[in-house]
Structures are given as C-alpha cells and as structure tokens.
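Chapter review. Work through the record for C1q domain-containing protein before attempting the end-of-chapter questions.
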Amino acid sequence: MFELFSPSAGMFTAPVEGVYYFGFSAFANGRNSMGVHLRKNGQQIVASYDYNSTHKDVNGANRAILQLEKGDQVYITLWGGLHIFDSYNSVSTFSGFLLFPV
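Structure tokens for C1q domain-containing protein:
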C-alpha cells in the first residue's frame, strides 16, 4: 500500500501529479516563540512566525497552493530554537488535499 502521509515522518508524498492545497496552524505557550516553515522537497514555500514578548500564548497559520509532481514531498519544520505546542484540542495542525490532477 502506498502511504500518502507518514505520521511518523510528518511528511506528505504526492501520489499523482496535480495541484494541491496545504495549510497549517501552529501554537506556542508560556515563554516560547513560534516559527514554522511549509516546505516542498526541502525548499521553503511559506512560513509563520510570532515572537512571544508577553509570556502569553502565540499562534500563526499559513496556506499555499502548490503544483506537485508524483513523489514530491511536503511537510512543515520548526525554525531553529523555536517551539510549537499541541493538546487534545488540536491547536497545531497540518493538512492538505488534491484540488485537481494535471
């Protein structure tokens, strides 16, 4: 079976050439600042960053529409030294879907 999204790697692999929508939200709490990149095959596409100067919760989100070849990989990464937090409320998310094949 071909796995489209690998939860252990946190990576989506395109099963077919097409145009895809991706989005993410990220949350950090306490004294942590938040910074996340959306990457395609290692290249940064979009990012979200929030500096936490008030020691309260911070959050951000971003979206992208990408044309992918079969086998291209899309995933999110943290900026060095920054954080995200998640809980049973699913406050940090990563999702995507095929808009149409090419």
